[in-house]
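The instructor's notes for this session suggest beginning with a concrete chain rather than abstract definitions. Hand out the sequence below and ask the class to guess, before any prediction is shown, which regions might be ordered.
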Amino acid sequence: MTTRNIGDDFSEGSTPRLIRIPSSGLRRAFARWLSTECRAGARLIVLEGLTGSGKTTLTKRPFLVDGKNIEIDQFFPEDTFIPLGTTYLNAINQQSLHAQLRTALASAAPVVVAEGPMVWPLIELLADMPPRDHIRRVYLKRMMHLQPDIWVAEDFLNNPKRWPPIGFHRSIWRYHAEHRPWLDADLVLERIEAPNEPLPGLFEPY
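After discussion, reveal the predicted structure:
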């Protein structure tokens, strides 16, 4: 895999498999990669990553004029108790998600970015999705500030005893541990965390 750090040249036709970059430069680097991919025909971007990786911050506003970002977490039923054993996929209102995704893809938006901890399983079987060569899968990792070769979540991910005990959150960790979506990604983003950036609560030992 190719590693490109901040300041590297992202020329036309150059599609790095991996970008490792400090948090401050992540959005700019991703936007440049995205522009190149859109020119190559990308229509739907599937962005996945564990809690605390930085997905929501990265996608808080569209990347291209008239582009659309869809946050999967917004499709939890409002004001509805989620039973403890419910998995992430079963908690999502999939009908509403699919409807919004179809509307976004049918619009004039140049690109649609769907982000969440589990996205691909929710959309891969939809019959009216764009062809695979018009979809890009992206995986976002959070790397240690002082040791940027180390993925913050790796030790937790490899030890089921440290996963959250509740079905909802545990199903997210199981998906990443068993399916290893970064191996199927077109791009892996390795975000070097900011100094003193706190860990999410889910990284506490259980």
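Then share the key points. The two ends are 34 Å apart (CA to CA). Confidence is low (pLDDT under 50) at residues 5-14.
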